[in-house]
Specification:
The complex is a heterodimer of chains A (112) and B (113). Helices cover 0% and strands 57% of the residues of chain A. Chain A is an all-beta fold. Chains A and B meet through strand 4, strand 5, strand 9 and strand 10 of A and strand 5, strand 6, strand 10 and strand 11 of B.
């Protein structure tokens, strides 16, 4: 069966520090991968998606970047965090066709 | 472009009462529609989905939703609320030709004893 792993679960980082969040999927190949952010009291905002290795689409220009170095690995990064980067970050995957999106357990990022 | 509107950021019902969470969508082609539930500090769990076929879709935990093309709606219902249903619910839309899943702003369901 397919599983999705996301870590860390919680993270407290100072303003200006770098960020790296990792997401991996097991039990499938060539998944479509997604990063969403959920700010306090708000809905889910699609940040990036990837349909293949090295292919990244950005939905919102901002302080973050994404990379897909391997087929089932998706990384969210920042060189210098801002206070506004605080939020709950969710990774998700689906197969082409979009019949169902499976989400990871999320990372709670607090920038102080 | 796809979009989703969820009416009511908070809905409060008594235990045992009907749950109705509203969702309207905008899509240029027949959409795929989803309802997800999120408990505090957790990821999203799929409740149910509509892709093609029967317009009344049954999901987990006694929830169901009906796709009404004429009303561009996909409202979520449950006949009798349980305390454990208290959570945040998200409606989402995807187009078959698109890689993207677009969410509504969410509705927080409160269940009163």
């Amino acid at each position: 069966s397919q599983t999705i792993h996301q870590w860390p679960a919680t993270l407290v980082q100072p303003v200006g520090s770098p960020l790296s969040l990792e997401c991996t999927v097991e039990g499938t190949s060539n998944p479509n991968l997604y990063w969403y952010r959920q700010a306090a009291g708000r809905g889910l905002q699609l940040l990036f998606y990837s349909v293949g290795i090295g292919q990244i689409s950005s939905e919102v220009p901002q302080n973050l970047s994404a990379s897909r170095p391997q087929d089932r690995q998706f990384i969210l990064s920042s060189k210098k965090l801002l206070l506004s980067d605080s939020g709950f970050y969710l990774c998700a995957w689906t197969q082409t066709g979009g019949y169902g999106y499976t989400f990871g357990s999320g990372t709670r990022l607090t920038v102080v | 472009a796809q979009s989703v509107t969820q009416l009511g950021s908070h809905v409060s019902v008594s235990e045992g009462a009907l749950v109705l969470l509203r969702c309207n969508y905008s899509s240029s082609v027949p959409p795929y529609l989803f309802w997800y539930v999120q408990y505090p500090n957790q990821g999203l769990q799929l409740l149910l989905k509509y892709t093609t076929g029967a317009t009344l879709v049954k999901g987990i935990n006694g929830f169901e939703a009906e796709f009404k093309k004429s009303e561009t709606s996909f409202h979520l219902t449950k006949p009798s609320a349980h305390m454990s249903d208290a959570a945040e619910y998200f409606c989402a839309v995807s187009e078959p030709s698109s890689y993207k899943l677009i969410f509504g702003s969410g509705t927080r369901l409160l269940v009163r004893p």
